Amino acid sequence: MALIYEKKGRIATITFNRPEAFNAMDPTTLQEFSASLMDFREDADSWVLIVTGAGEKAFCAGADVKSMIPLMREWREKPWLMPPSIVRGMELAKPVIGAINGLALGGGCEIALACDLRIASEKASFGTPEVKLGLIPGWGGTQRLPRMIPMAKAAEILLTGAAIDAQEAYRLGLVNKVVPPAQLMPAAQEMAEAICKNGPLAVRAAKEAMIKAKSLSLEEGLRLEWTLFSNLFLTEDFKEGTGAFVEKRKPNFQGK
User: Fold this and answer.
1) Domain around 224
2) Does one domain contain both 126 and 140?
3) Among 110, 156, 208, 236, the one annotated catalytic
4) Is residue 130 among the annotated active site residues?
5) Are residues 191 and 213 located together in one domain of the fold?
6) Tens-digit pLDDT profile for residues 178-201
7) Do 44 and 56 lie in a common domain?
8) Cα(128)–Cα(97) distance, rounded to whole angstroms?
9) Strand pairing partners for 232?
10) Which of 130, 168, 190, 240 is catalytic?
11) Which of 18, 22, 105, 123 could form a disulfide with 58 if both were Cys (CB 3.0 to 4.6 A apart)?
């Protein structure tokens, strides 16, 4: 299987499963990635997604050049044929955690950038080497990276094609934490479980407010925040959350 999609409780996990090819994205993997994301999006029982790669060498080393170039040429004229995913073409209200276990290069780096939270193994590295092939990133690298780290550093990564290691990524604020390889998935699981303890509708509203605010003025962002805040007052989750607080018990959120 090019990709493994699993669910356990409220947490779903996508694992790129081509370790012999550094988990590079071929057409099959891309289709399965898109289908898994759609399933997660529509599954009311799945609240948080973890995305990772098989093995310790690579999260995803980008596109499998030989198999993907024919498709890329077709997508150049017909971009709507590209399977939608979190990098392009799909909005995902639920939170996504990237567990970056190794190389995250090219499209793999762009998938990591499209996650809401990133935990990196000490062996992880991040880079956009497309310029070395005469291209630029086409999955959001030129747009997301400068929004996440200082412009000068983003320019260095994008224009030289050089990679940075996990500690540099942490220093720049690109990842939330760096852990030893054996602790990567436990750390991602712990973060996912912490999110799942909260009201899922509130979590999604917070994500929406943050993402949409990037293209809004402060005044517009404050109005959006108030609208989302006010709407949550009408939910069963809000009643449950406040009731549980008063009664000094754990809330039982249902996403309603």
Assistant:
1) 200-247
2) yes
3) 110
4) yes
5) no
6) 999 999 999 999 999 999 999 999
7) yes
8) 20
9) none
10) 130
11) 22
